[in-house]
Amino acid sequence: MHVKAKQMAFGGLLLAVTVVCMALGSVIETNTLFLLAAAAFFVGIVIREFGLRTGAAFYLAAILLGFLVTPNKFYVITFAAMGFYIWGIEAVWMFLAKRPQMGHRMGIYWLAKYVIFNLVYLPCLFGFRSMLFQKSMSDQMILAAVVVGQIAILVYDKAYQYVQGTLWEKWRKRIL
Question: Looking at residue 128, what DSSP letter applies?
Fold first, then answer.
């Protein structure tokens, strides 16, 4: 197994920052979702720099280390869901990039984004209803939570695209 030293060092630093972001989510309660999203964005950076396999190893290592270090395990589960979404959309993007002859690639990409998101979001919403909400929720409120989730994924996805396309491209030249 040949591992490049620079890749290993960079991955280790990003893993440390990822776990720090997860742990800070427990300390700074007002910025929990922001910090967990930032931690999940590092999964995408590793995938774009080193590939899906390295990204999957990074993602699994972040979850394992998060469970060992982070005081609030629920935040690690939230990070895992966010990171899985990013890993999934990057895998779909790479799949579609290898097939330029496919028609409607952007439509397929957006459909895949919503499918991946809903594969994670809906089971959590319906399966962990009592853990997520203090009181019993009416069906209308659950439906509203589903709709809000569909809107929230648009915001999350736009933020991820901004981080990858603008911020990381500027910092990439300085770091790598």
Answer: T
C-alpha closest to that of 70 among 16, 108, 146: 16
Q: How far apart are CA 22 and CA 25, in angstroms?
A: 5
Q: For residue 12, give every residue at least 6 positions away whose Cβ sits within 8 Å of its Cβ, in sequence order, or none.
A: none
Query: In this structure, how many other beta carbons lie within 10 angstroms of the beta carbon of residue 2?
Result: 3
CA–CA gap between residue 92 and residue 96 (Å, rounded): 6
Rounded to the nearest angstrom, the gap between the alpha carbon of residue 145 and the centroid of all alpha carbons in its chain is 20
pTM (2 d.p.): 0.88
pLDDT digits (tens, 9 = 90+) for 5-57: 888 889 999 999 999 999 998 888 788 889 999 999 999 999 999 999 999 99
DSSP string covering 118-131: HHHHHHHHHHTHHH
How far lies 141's CA from each of 136, 147, 176, in Å? 10, 10, 47
